[in-house]
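seq as requested:
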Amino acid sequence: MVNKSKPLISVILPCLNEAATITIAISWIKQGLQKLSRRYRSEIIIVDNGSTDNSAYLARKTGVQVIREPRPGYGQALLAGFTRSRGDIIIMGDSDATYDFREIPKLVQALKSNVDIVLGNRFARAKSRAAIPPLNRIVGNPVLTGLINLFYGAGISDSQSGLRALTRDAYRKMDLRTTGMEFASEMIIKTLSHRLTIKEVPITYYQRRTPSKLSLITDAYRHIQAILLYSPTFLLVIPGLIVFLLGAFLTVMLLPGPLYLGRIMIDIHTMIIAILLAILGMHSMLIGIFTRVYLVRVLGIPGGFLSQYLMKYISTELLLGIGLMLFSLGFLVIVAVTGIWITSGFSALARARELIAASGLTIIGFQLTSSALLFGQLKK
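struct tokens:
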């Protein structure tokens, strides 16, 4: 996976007001790279992300490369560093002296075993685990890691570790775009989406010496948003299909008349809820399908088996044909019931069941017909 002709290692650190720790972090990086100097060339890039202290000045005094990224954000700073870097191997970390960069050789060694990205695992050692802030250790990281494992089958322990090593080829394939702290989650999601390999190695993590810059609610929301966005099949399509089938089944069963389950009678009120479930389920499926098409066509993120099936067999013509058929059927039933009402002299009618089902067919038909146009544009 690594270029055999003395490859270049690029170490990239985003920096925002880390004057108290930046020189310590750089010193550790140099010590770690010194152990690899016979086999690798190296460069260190500090990305100043709008510091108002003398972080950038202190970094320059150590002789490393310092670049400025005025656009705020953890991901934005790292992307600027990745773009500037030239390394065959990219190592990213933080400037707050929480990660022991003297362990860089361990990450580089792991990349040699046919691995695309290596994550430093802070939870593998008791002391490192204890150094993580309690809220992040007990709630934040486990929840985000659990979601990534659930939706993407990552099988990892520390999805939010900031110490990582990856190959240049892996970075190019990922096409990373997020600009905030959710960058950490996006990297793992896209690694898995592109069927790249991940390996975790135990690392040393120290307690932060200065106040954290994390925004608990905002950063957590952006992480969860990114995790869910890249998994529309499991988040929207499958749940939507289940809800749609449940609603459609109940509607059909209640169309002839009420159902009796022992002493329980299920009647027209349940039918109204059932048709609503069918409509909402269809809406969820369509949004999920559109999101998947967008991810594949626009962002270049391949999906799994189910996603590939949807992309292959769902077409504009299919959506349009089914939509027009359902819309026409529902509309004709509504017209027929209206005709019966008129011919009866506008008297009371016992046709509520037919109208409920017909209204549902008309709405779902309209959903499919109008969605077909958007689907066609996205799939081009």
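The chain is about 55% helix and 10% strand.
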